[in-house]
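Summary for the lay section of the report: proteins are chains of building blocks that fold into shapes. Here we show the chain for Pseudouridine synthase and then a coded description of the shape we predicted for it.
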Amino acid sequence: MSVTTDEALNFVVEDEFSGERLDKVLARLMPSVSRARLQTWIEQGAVAVNGITVEKIRAKVAAGDEIEVMEQPSPEELAFKPVAMNLDIVYEDDEILVVNKPAGLVVHPAAGHWDDTLLNGLLARNPELKTLPRAGIVHRLDRDTTGLMVVAKTLESQTDLIRQLQARTVKREYWAIVHGQAPEAGFIEEPIMRDPRSPMRFCVGNGPRAKEAKTHVRCVDVGNVPGVGQTPLTVSWVACRLDTGRTHQIRVHMQWAGLPLVGDPVYKGKMGKLPADCPLTIMKRQALHASRLGLVHPKTKENMQWFVPAPQDLTELMESVGFGPTDEPVTVFEK
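The coded shape description reads as follows.
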């Protein structure tokens, strides 16, 4: 077998591979590339056998055949490109920046969102971030969750912030509006795993891949809104702090506790249909906002903290219930 690595990878099929399928042979010759990705390359016309393009993954090869492979960028690699967008930067210096993420903005590129994410916007605004893993992003928010995120601008700062997250010293405080009467104070410490019934959901569970998760909860206020037949529905304004950062953690934990988030399209709990005139219908997404962020500056070692008010839709919901003020931080946790 011979290999060159200029513009293409070239292989000569050895006797042991004679009569095998093209995709299987390439999987043996290129173990660092997944077979599914190799099959895609074949179908895209990026593979030639004896100088002839072959687009059938089940095509057979023989000993002595020459295979030429033009490596193709992955969707992930294509996604790592700058796309200009209007970002709300709350704070920035040479080491970090803090952004107020709006609803609807995905953080990392993934299927269906390869070039319209926060990562793409950060690369357009700060091109130097292309040298950092995930463009300096160290934690994430769900697409329709709003609020504060910190982004590192140097590798040293990114490493330091990741260590702070692992040590659970980064203070991440969220506002949530939930169905039901929330307890005055407490915490939920239940492991979270991918829901075996739906790959897009997570749930509390004890499967082999379940991860520890802890959410501190404090009730800020309680109110009532009209329900079906004008029967009052109780809703609570809660503040949550995370010890861990599992996917959908607050949403999953609050549903498990019988307090699903208002407007959550995925973790609805057992809440019935709301009347059209109910104020809760204002929310077309989960009522969740990352209102406060606190950390130790990775360079100066100064304790820093930021607050951003609730966005317009959440503000309208809270004011309609009688919650507020919505533009000031609440003090329900120890510093």
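Put simply, here is one thing we learned. The longest strand covers residues 214-226.
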